[in-house]
Amino acid sequence: MLKPGDKAPEFTGRDQDGNEITLSQFKGKKLVLYFYPKDDTPGCTAEACDLRDNYERFLSMGYQVVGVSKDSEKSHKKFIEKYNLPFPLISDTETSILQAYGAWGKKKFMGREYDGIIRKTFVIDQTGLITDIIEKVNTKAHSSQILPD
């Protein structure tokens, strides 16, 4: 289990345009890396739109924002275009990034247990250390959980 103070696991993934994104690209910058279950579902849309609506604030405080889910690049592209999202979304169809960050595991829904994406957000500093992990995500007000007032 990762905890604040740990080094963030290195990752490599492809965004909605097929561009390679790695953790090392963000060296010297602060990063909000958020994991979410599925494009264009109510909770995930609320979370993405809240981050979008506060994006300028994130940038002004030196943060980059990147989302990760198991959805395809094509699905991410449609999601970004539909909601005008200004940040990249990584397609992790193999779940390697999800697993490295502990965002893949057992979930329960209506009495059924299955493996799936666990919604959580990691705040990573300029040196690659995890400074915060948000596990109880408020999808409608997620930015206020990340940014200090």
Outline the structure in words.
The strands form 3 sheets. A 5-stranded mixed β-sheet has the order 5-4-3-8-9. The chain has a two-stranded antiparallel ribbon with strand order 1-2. The chain has a two-stranded antiparallel sheet with strand order 6-7. The longest helix is centred in the first third of the chain and has 12 residues, at 42-53. Helix content is 26%, strand content 30%. The model has no long low-confidence stretch (mean pLDDT 96). 31% of the residues are buried. The chain has 5 helices and 9 strands; from the N terminus they run βββααβαβαββββα. The protein has 149 residues and is of the alpha/beta class. The chain has helices at 42-53, 55-60, 73-83, 96-100, 142-146; strands spanning 12-14, 20-22, 30-35, 63-69, 89-91, 104-109, 112-117, 120-124, 130-134. It has a single domain, classed as Glutaredoxin (3-Layer(aba) Sandwich). It is globular, with a radius of gyration of 14 Å.
What is the structure about, briefly put?
The chain is of the alpha/beta class. It is 26% helix and 30% strand. It has a single domain (12-146), classed as 3-Layer(aba) Sandwich (Glutaredoxin).
Q: Helix/strand/pairing class, anyone?
A: alpha/beta
Number of discrete domains: 1
Strand content: 25-35%
What is the rounded distance between the termini? 28 Å
CATH homologous superfamily caption:
Glutaredoxin
Overall pLDDT level: 96
What strand order characterises the main sheet?
Answer: 5-4-3-8-9
CATH class: Alpha Beta
- Count of alpha/pi helices: 5
CATH topology type: Glutaredoxin
Tell me the radius of gyration: 14 Å
Principal-axis shape equals globular
